[in-house]
Design brief:
The chain is α+β, with helices and mostly antiparallel strands and 745 residues long. It has 23 helices and 15 strands. It folds into four domains: 30 residues, no CATH class; 366 residues, Multidrug efflux transporter AcrB transmembrane domain (Multidrug efflux transporter AcrB transmembrane fold, Up-down Bundle), CATH 1.20.1640; 167 residues, Multidrug efflux transporter AcrB pore domain (Alpha-Beta Plaits); 92 residues, 2-Layer Sandwich (Multidrug efflux transporter AcrB TolC docking domain, DN and DC subdomains), CATH 3.30.2090. Helix content is 62%, strand content 12%. The strands form five sheets. Strands 5, 6, 13, 14 and 15 form a five-stranded antiparallel sheet that branches. A four-stranded antiparallel sheet has the order 2-3-1-4, with helices on one face. A two-stranded antiparallel ribbon has the order 7-12. The chain is elongated and about 115 Å long. It starts with a helix and ends with a helix.
Length: 745
């Protein structure tokens, strides 16, 4: 609805404390079973801390590279200005501060600083080495990099444009995130080419005399720069070797991708989970309650559990044999175990309780009554055969420990009493089928016949239900004592026109896509993607033609996510190429710039593999984000190289001059992005389980792409540009030869 969940919950709590709880009768108490505001506030508070910490760490990185407090202050000022611009867009679009928008703002810190760093560093270099005049140095320094900054920013915008228009669950997850990043980048572009140069022209100072700290840091960077010059010269001397080694380095990414577990969402510790339980079909409420007490006894032994709420008869059918337990854990600081480890322990302990089956699972992230990560249905033409094959498949899958406890929500053995009406005799007496059914329904089940307004009392309206007295029907034979009034006004017993037959039948008949279905639920001990593949392969080998298995819930959404992400990747590549081709006025150079993207994907995937994380929607979004971030470094190198070539320098000479000059801003921009993402990657604060995969993917990709881009992109650029020169020379020589032959007598 777009409403503020925390504000609504606070208003409800205030109403409870001020109006409802004081009016409760003696002996009645009131407690809150679930409060999402606590989790939301934790997540928001953690991201706010990350925002502050990221800003401070970014300022420290800038100071270490530039060794100037004024330069650091100028760049740091770009952060709040750009973030406020993004917040203003959020306000006009109706977005609130939630986990996704705050995550976008956190990432913007590294991005907006990138643009300001590139501009300020170039102005600083102009002031120090070329032009001491503040205004002209600011103007010329900005003009030299404005093209690169604009191309880099538009590249990022192109990356997130497809995300804004994504459909489905992933669209709802990341649309606000993409909007914040997109408009934040545009504001950052404006700030970096207007506010930053103005501040540099007035307040940036360049001194020729420096203290020992400056000299120490500068000597360290000069050593790095000398090593890079040697490495770059070697790479340009052995360009094909660099390309071959790069291909060899990229090749293992397929291995890492195959080894990654795959799932829809990461395992987030929300501090709450569900236990769905069921007693044998047809159990009385008293029996289910007695078995529930045994389950609660096991739950009470876990010190990590703060409270729980048990209900019987939940769900659409309201069966007395089924129910749920909503469990709240203590805070993360008060316990050592992760929520998923507690779920694993409970699953093993509850499996030992006789007379009841209990299935712990996370709270459903996408709605629904069950929270198991892996849910699927078996579809077939008729109910009996679907039941038979469903039980066979359940037995097969239950023998695989990696799939956990497999629950089948197909109940065909509910004790039932069927009424067979003698229609001929009923018609002779003057009774219709409706009359008989209504009489049985009213007396046995009850029927709301009126409303009662308690105006002198509490003013509420109550239903008036008509039914037989308590204890009137204790056995099926008691139904025969129901009397019906015939056409002539005489009363006749029910067994005069009805024959009762006891048997068993389905509690619920489920259909999926207009076919009979059996629903399966399980929490596997392996990744959701691997478990889903096992289920599909087992079903393919086991089921006859006409029967198939379809994933639902998170597994279904993950399959959709793969398609959406493939669309995002392809769209982003096409849009980035179009932007770069228009900016560089070349069809070839965009490919050189985009060489850095597979290098980043390798690092991102390897980082996820090393950290033991899965490929989920957050890590996928991190890989998409990398495509725009790493292109910025390549753009900086290629843009300055092109400028030097227009001044008449050879390709190798231009590369050997441009790349070392751009080494400092490339390292600064990469390190700032890594530093900003570091708290989330290290698991600090609430929400780290969710944000961690995105942060790890970004950090891994930035590390690999930065180290490789500085060498690989110049080598590929040299190969491509020299190849074009030779091709043009060959074409020119061929056309000259043809002209000579034509003019010969």
């Amino acid at each position: 609805t777009g409403a503020n969940a925390v504000a609504i919950i606070d208003a409800v709590n205030a109403s409870l404390n001020e109006e409802i709880i004081p009016g409760l009768p003696p002996g009645m108490s009131f407690s809150i079973a679930s409060n999402d505001a606590d989790l939301i506030n934790e997540l928001v508070h953690a991201l706010e801390e990350h925002l502050l910490l990221g800003t401070l760490l970014t300022a420290l990185v800038v100071w270490l590279f530039l060794k100037s407090l004024r330069a650091t202050a100028i760049i740091a000022l770009a952060i709040p200005v750009s973030l406020l611009g993004a917040v203003a867009v959020m306000y006009f679009l109706g977005y609130t501060f939630d986990t996704m928008t705050l995550l976008g703002l956190l990432l913007l810190i590294g991005i907006v600083v990138d643009d300001a760093i590139v501009v300020l560093e170039n102005i600083y270099r102009h002031r120090e080495d070329i032009d001491p005049n503040p205004k002209s140095a600011a103007l010329n320094g900005t003009n030299q990099v404005v093209f690169a900054v604009m191309a880099a920013s538009l590249t990022l915008v192109s990356i997130f444009a497809p995300v804004v228009f994504m459909q489905g669950v992933i669209g709802s997850f990341f649309r606000s995130f993409a909007v914040v990043i997109t408009f934040g980048v545009l504001v950052s572009l404006f700030v970096s080419v207007t506010l930053t140069p103005m501040l540099c022209s007035r307040y940036l100072q360049v001194s020729k005399q420096h203290g020992p700290v400056y000299n120490f840091l500068e000597s360290g960077f000069r050593a790095v720069e000398r090593f890079y010059r040697w490495l770059l010269r070697s790479a340009l001397s052995f360009r094909w070797l660099v390309v071959v080694l790069t291909i060899v380095a990229v090749w293992p990414s397929g291995f890492f991708m195959g080894q990654l577990g795959k799932g829809f969402l990461p395992e987030e510790d929300e501090g709450r989970f569900l236990v769905s339980f069921k007693a044998p079909l047809g159990s009385t409420l008293e029996y289910t309650d007695e078995r529930l007490a045994a389950v609660e006894k096991v739950i009470a032994q876990h010190k990590e559990i703060a409270s729980w709420l048990s209900t019987i008869g939940t769900g659409e059918t309201g069966q007395a044999s089924r129910g749920d337990i909503f469990i709240r854990l203590t805070t993360r600081e008060q316990r050592d175990l992760h929520m998923y480890r507690i779920i694993d322990q409970l699953r093993n302990e509850l499996a030992q309780i006789p007379g009841i089956k209990a299935f712990p699972s996370p709270v459903p992230p996408l709605g629904g009554q069950r929270g198991e990560p892996l849910q699927f249905v078996l579809l077939g033409p008729d109910l009996s055969s679907v039941a038979e094959w469903s039980h066979t498949l359940q037995q097969k899958l239950s023998a695989m420990p990696e799939l956990g406890s497999v629950d089948l929500d197909l109940q065909l053995e509910l004790p039932q009493l069927t009424l067979h009406i003698d229609r001929t005799r009923a018609q002779d007496i003057g009774l219709s089928t409706r009359d008989i059914a209504l009489a049985v329904n009213v007396l046995v089940g009850g029927l709301d016949v009126a409303k009662y307004n308690d105006l002198p009392g509490d003013g509420e309206r109550y239903d008036v239900r008509l039914k037989a007295g308590e204890g009137s029907f204790r056995s099926p034979d008691d139904l025969n004592r129901i009397y019906l009034r015939g056409r002539d006004g005489k009363l006749v017993r029910l067994d005069t026109v009805v024959t009762l037959q006891q048997g068993i039948g389905p509690a619920v008949v489920t259909r999926f896509d207009l076919r009979y279905s059996g629903n399966f639920f399980t929490t596997p001990t392996i990744s959701e993607g691997a478990a889903a593949e096992i289920v599909k392969q087992t079903a393919k080998e086991l089921l006859p033609p006409g029967y198939d298995v379809k994933m639902i819930g998170r597994a279904e959404e993950f399959e959709k996510t793969g398609k959406y992400m493939l669309f995002a990747f392809i769209s982003a590549i096409v849009l980035v190429y179009m932007v770069l081709a228009s900016q560089f006025d070349s069809f070839i150079q965009p490919f050189v710039i985009m060489v850095a993207q597979p290098l980043a994907i390798v690092g991102g995937v390897a980082g996820l593999w090393i950290a033991g994380m899965t490929l989920n929607i957050f890590s996928m979004m991190g890989l998409v984000l990398l495509m725009g971030l790493v292109a910025k470094n390549s753009i900086l190198l290629i843009d300055l190289t092109n400028q030097l070539r227009t001044e008449g320098k050879e390709i190798s000479e231009a590369l050997l001059e441009a790349c070392p000059l751009r080494l400092r801003p490339v390292l600064m921009t990469s390190v700032t992005v890594i530093i900003v993402m570091l708290p989330a990657a290290l698991g600090f604060g609430a929400g780290a389980d969710t944000n961690g995969p995105l942060a790890v993917a970004v950090i891994g990709g930035m590390v690999s792409s930065t180290l490789l881009t500085l060498v690989v992109v110049p080598a590929v650029y040299s190969l491509v540009e020299n190849g074009q020169l030779r091709w043009r020379g060959w074409l020119k020589g061929r056309s000259s030869s043809e002209s000579i032959r034509e003019t010969s007598p």
